[in-house]
Amino acid sequence: MPRNDRHLTEDALRAAIEKDEIDTVVVAFTDMQGRLQGKRLHGRYFLDHVLGEGKTEGCNYLLGVDVDMNTVDGYAITSWEQGYGDMEFVLDLETIRLLPNEPAAAMIQCDLTWPDHTPVAQSPRAILAAQMKRAADLGYVAVAGTELEFIIMEDTYEEAFTKGYRDLVPSNQYNIDYSILGTHRVEPLLREIRNTMYAAGMNTEAAKGECNFGQHEIGFLFDDVMVTADNHAVYKEVAKQIAVKHGKSITFMAKFNQREGSSCHIHLSLRGKDGEIVFWDDKAGKTTPLYDRFVAGVLATMRDFTLLYAPNINSYKRFAHGSFAPTAIAWGNDNRTCAVRLVGEGPAARMENRVPGGDVNPYLALAAMLAGGLHGIEKKLTLEPPLTGSAYDSDAPKVPHTMNEAREAFTTSKVARAALGDEVVDHYTNMADVELADYDATVTDWELRRGFERL
User: Fold this and answer.
1) What number of CA atoms fall less than 13 Å from residue 342's CA on the CB side?
2) What percent of the chain has pLDDT over 90?
3) Coil, strand or helix at 426
4) Which of 40, 100, 118, 243 has the smallest set of CB atoms within 10 Å of its CB?
5) Considering the chain, what is the average pLDDT of its residues?
6) What is the predicted pLDDT for the residue at 1?
């Protein structure tokens, strides 16, 4: 079944291709870095050779490369020694959507399996699906929304590359947080993104300005966690494509410059299998013990899973005092200085994880939140009292300040290994090792500026 009436059924897609209304079908999966990877298939080829099989194939190196698509060592599932064989892109026919920003195009998102049809456990979608099953086995479903911030530049991606990503012109030259005037300057771009995403099956809420120069956010209504992750990946891809059309560029870097970073606050709650509210006791007018244990679990495992919330070297530059990005592992009632903020009552009761940045892989972050929260439920953890006042000045435990610190917490975590499996933990530990080694070998602008003449 399609996810809503703006998604396409299999029959509707078939009919549109036969009428030549759709001539291109994008089949894509989300890689380790949170990017869509796949193929654009001719519509007739898709009907004749792919739809019936329910799959196509692609090289398994796609889950073993760095951000520049370089093949790197250390991955158990893919290597030169193993010959870099294929994996299967298995069509999820619930995800069929139009791509209004591309002529006559539709998209289908995919799961990954090996040629023997066993799941690729290290794929982000499989990691999230495993935690969804854990929740289902306990009688719960998870719903979430991601608030993804970005910075718009007047430069094209080609111009930004030529400039070495320096001296770029932001679309706004002052703080436009909630400013109607500031957002109006780029409303043609924002409007096209909002409307394109709605037509592609997402429930668009609103656009607003943010603090950094040229910084904006477009929000979407919460949904099932897998739907939210799928939509997040598509939105991030399409927003960049639309920016290109407008002669601009968008960056989702967690920390582009010395000013405010770009966050991806994640709101999450559990429901019963039939939609019952399980995080709020209406009679008592307060949170339920289940909710408290879930939040306690997320907090108790925050250091264990920070690598999945902050997956890049740059991610850790965002955790700065007084920046609205958290530094303290604490929770508070509607307190934006804490790593975890509790908001809402009744059906709206939910936790907000403020640690992830705009560079996060949504599948991995949602899987980590579920793994941590379910750990809290299973172990019946006690939630500490809420922090009041500024968490920046508290003595609460700190969010890992570097990727190396987060890598150590993740790879040595008994909770992470029990929840995700050794193969997943080892795979993403290696991803961190690759990034750390490359960064450690890089001579930065900071070093050149301070050392070329003065030292």
Assistant:
1) 24
2) 100
3) helix
4) 118
5) 97
6) 84
